[in-house]
Each structure stands twice: as structure tokens, then as C-alpha cells.
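Question (not urgent): is this output format expected?
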Amino acid sequence: METSRLIRIESLESLRGLAEWWDDLWLRGAATLPLFRAEMLAQWVERFSRSGDFFAIAAETAGGLSAALPLLRGGKAASGWMRLPPFSRAATMPGNQWSAAGDLLLDESDSSDRALQCLAEGIRASGVRLLRLDEVELDSVRWRRFLRVCVEAGMSVAALPRWEVGQVEIDHDWPAYKARWSRKHRQQMAQSARRLAERGKTRLEVHSRLADEEVEHVLRCCFDIEDRSWKGAAGTSVLRSPGMVEFFLRQARQAARWGQLEIVTLNCDGCPIAFSYGLAAKGVFHSTKIGYDPQFAEFRPGQLLRCFLLERCFADRAWKALDFQGELTPSHAAWLPRRYSIGRVLIAPRSMPGRIAVWGCKHVRPWMRRGL
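Got this back:
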């Protein structure tokens, strides 16, 4: 029986030094988003946090990693009445509204819980009183197993569903898939495609093999489109947010070097009118950012881009799924995706303040939401 050994990664330098092991674990696990790879995680921390706040708990088995959980010291462990006092030691998982960054990585080929027990031991040894882990894929096998192990280790755990994400499963039968759409959706897509074609030559362009020097031009074209939307007027577009162009440019260049960048544009007479900033791995296209030129809104360019992109994926045996990435919307639901739950997890290893926060999350917060 192979044993697992607890290791702590205390710096970004150490993380990058273990990048080969970390990325190999990501490759063997069920998580498909490239943003969970070591370099992407390090870049996020450098942009949005303090490097000294980063640490990771991992299990080493047979000369490699079998489980890992990246964390940040400090941060808001809870909100409102559940906030811990300032002297309490809390930790969160990297990631925010701009970009995902951290997730539980697990080699699921090992059906034993030794590696996860190692992580639970590491959480206890860290001295952290409360973990607040956001954007957790609650339905996934790896997270269900990990939370069960934490409970068995005597920790208090609360899992709070927050929203659903849609993912279209690619079965490579495009006619049968289209036939399942609602009649209204089929008519809208056919009409929009016909009317846009009357406006100009329509073409889906996929940028999947960009050199370093080519990435910036394509990415800025996409962000120009976003800036012409309501996000530009609200000052929340990438172009109007300090430091964000540089962040995404660095991220995109890294993904391109790995062959995992997929920027898709819908062009009309050679001009891009909609885009999807995609990251692809293990047969899954993750649409991490999408936008369209409001001057073409009557043609539903965002939905047309998805239509043409899905048709392309259905024709290519390499693709298994298209993930909409963000919170499920009516425009996502029209494509009949499977749905999976994203939520927040609170884990209190031992402290009474942490356990009270978890208890309140499980029992008081639902009562307050019902307005009783």
C-alpha cells in the first residue's frame, strides 16, 4: 500500500518549482480548466493578492502529487453577522470575479482516501480556524469525497449552493441536438443568421495557434468589443480597469504557449462583432469571457457565435463539452446544457468561532433568507 506524505508549499517560488508535479496532478484529475495549473495560479496571486499570503497543502504519493489545495491567508472568512473577529486565522481559495484560479486537485484513480486525509491533516496543522472556499463545484466527486473526509475528521462543514453553470455535452450528432432545441430558439437562430448574412459576409474565426507576438492584437480586438458594450459605460470593462489588460494578456500568452488558448470571433464583412475568450483542455472549451458589439444586437451576435461554435465542436471528435463558465442565464439555457452547482464551502477545523460561523451558515442563514 502506497503511503501519502503531507507537504506544504509556502511560496510562489516553491509552487513554480513544483509546477511539473502540480500540472501533472491537474492533468490526471477531473478539473479541466487550465487556470488551475501552477503558472496560472501564481499569476493570479501576483495580480490580486500578496505573494506572502499564498500557501498550499498537498499530498505526495510515489514521487508525485496525489492531492492539492491552494489557499490564501486572511481575507473575509465570512460576511455580515458571520464575520470572524480580526484575531481569528482564516483562509480562502484563490479566485475572483475576473478569473478563476484555485481548485481542489485530486488523482481520482486512487479510490482510497489517503491523500484527502493527508489534506485534512494539513488543514488542522495549519492553525487556520475557518476556511471559506468559493466557487466550489459541489456536485463533483472530488469535492464530495473531500468534504466527507473532513467531517469524518471531526471538522464542521457547510456547503452552500449559490448558482448553476451550464455545460453542453458534445455527442457529435448535430442534427439530433438541433432537433431538441425549442422551436422558438431554432427560428431565432435561423432568422438571425439569415439577416446577418444579408448585412455582410459572416464568418466564425478561431484563433487557436497564436504566437506570443500575435496574442495582443487579437485580445485587444475582443476587449474593444467589450468596451463598446454596457461594461464600458459602467467603467467595468477590461480596458477601463487598471492592470487588467496586462493580466489577461499575460494569461492568454501562457495559455497560447500550452496550446490551450481558443479565441473565437464572429465576423461580419471582416470586422469582429462578437467574441469568446476561451481556454480549452481535455476536450472541454471553457468560454471564460464573451461579448458583442451593441450596434449588432438585433442579430443576436453572442448567440450566433455560440451556435456556429457548437456546430464546429460537434463536427470535431476532439471536443467533449462546451462550458459556459459563468452563472446560468436564459441565453445559456436555450442550448439545453447539463447543469452543475457552484457554491461556497465553510470548514472549521477546531476553533469555536469557526464552528459557530459554520453552524450559523447551515441553520440561521436559510431561516433569514426565508424572511421568517
